[in-house]
Amino acid sequence: MTDSRTSTSSSSDSSGTLPVPPPNGVQGRISADGRHALPPDVSRQWRDVFWLALFVLHLILVGFVLGVLGYNRFKTKDRLNIDKYTMGFLENQAGLTEDYWPMYALAAGVGTILGWIWLSLLGSLANGMMKIAVHFLTTYLAVISVLCFWGKQFAWGVVFAIGAALQFLYVISVIDRLPFTMLVLRRAVKMVWSLPEVMGVSCGFMLVMLLWLALWSFGVAGVVALSLGDSGRWWLLLVFSISLFWTGAVLCNIVHVIVSGMVFLVLIHGGRDVESMPSKPLVNSLQFAMTKSFGSICYGSLFTAAIRTLRWEIRGIRSKIGNNECLLCLVDFLFHLVETLVRFFNKYAYVQIAVYGKNFNHSARDAWELFQSTGVEALVAYDCSGAVLLMGTVLGGLVVGTCSGVWTRIHHPDRVIMVGSTAMLIGMILKIRC
């Protein structure tokens, strides 16, 4: 629900709503206050079907491979005789799936608890939770770095030390934007909490995510126990981690589209209890998100977060260069390149998908043009609530990874980094879902 909060809050003007124009070729009706209302005869078509098929095929293949790898080491070593295909990379020691699966169960449990605590406190203590996410993350990264050096994991120690330094520099660069971000978060959380049925949908999708994580962790535990060299295990874990990230992003953005559709209807009709509200709006939003708009969600989930983050980071770098003309030209070139990509991979495209059922590229371009035509682009750029929520997500992942890593160190000290890093990913995915 992270992106839904940001999108709904960031697209508000002084009256609390932003006029949403009808899509090209569709004549919308105008309400009494001059806002556009969604016409009842907007036809929705299946969009981005290729990406829908690719995502479903990916789920089937990855799910099958995860099941095979987990079952291969469950209670009996190499029950499917997979080791004969890895003779060149075999190790003398190998474990069982159940040796590592409980550590991932701990990660899922801790991640779920942290996610609900975060969501609950964000509604009543938004300022405090934001300060924790911003400042405590830097400290936690530094502590993890010291522990990695102490455990002779020098490469990971350097990674976490660099992360702590970058986090500190980022906080310093956006410190003046935090008060506005607090205001945005409070308004967004208040809007979402006013729609309890949406919270129920979010709980349902979290249950789906937990079921997928059960299968994912079962297969990953089998990979960690596999009699394969560390390099082979890491490559398998990387592939499965990318798959988990995509799946988690898709589920998160489904909720994003549902929330966007519900909030749009509430704002455009002036309330959720008025007579003009369509019947079963939540069911209709859920149906469109899971069918005709599902391909667009799968497509956008691959790229949106990374490109959005890169855009704002380059914008911040350009504003701090000063008079270095050569470097300024280089950063300007990168900035325009990323600006072009943002036109096609814009997180606010999900609002257009929810309202009009467009494909992802069309929605992203229209959202971009809407911001430019209304003059709120600078306001959206100034808001860093997405970055703050990301900090909370990373912090939650680090806590989860630490818990599983400590348990792993007690029983399997040679698998601490492998289990801890993948458990951290589980924690981050569950935090995003909340």
Automatic annotation (TrEMBL):
Q: Where is this region: Disordered?
A: 1-32
**Subcellular localization:** Cell membrane; Membrane
Q: Is this entry keyworded Transmembrane?
A: yes
Which keywords, in A-to-Z order, does the entry hold? Membrane, Transmembrane, Transmembrane helix
Q: What is its main location?
A: membrane
Q: Which GO terms describe its cellular component?
A: plasma membrane
Q: How is the protein disposed in the membrane?
A: Multi-pass membrane protein
Q: Which GO terms describe its molecular function?
A: transmembrane transporter activity
Q: Which domain of life is it from?
A: Eukaryota
Q: Where is the composition biased (Low complexity)?
A: 1-15
Instruction: Please give the start and end residues of each transmembrane region.
Output: 49-71, 103-126, 132-151, 158-178, 198-228, 235-268, 288-310, 387-410, 416-432
Q: What does the sequence similarity comment in the record state about its family?
A: Belongs to the CTL (choline transporter-like) family.
Instruction: Identify the PANTHER family for this entry.
Output: CHOLINE TRANSPORTER-LIKE (SLC FAMILY 44) (PTHR12385), PROTEIN PNS1 (PTHR12385:SF4)
* Function per UniProt: Choline transporter.
Tell me what this protein is called: Choline transporter-like protein
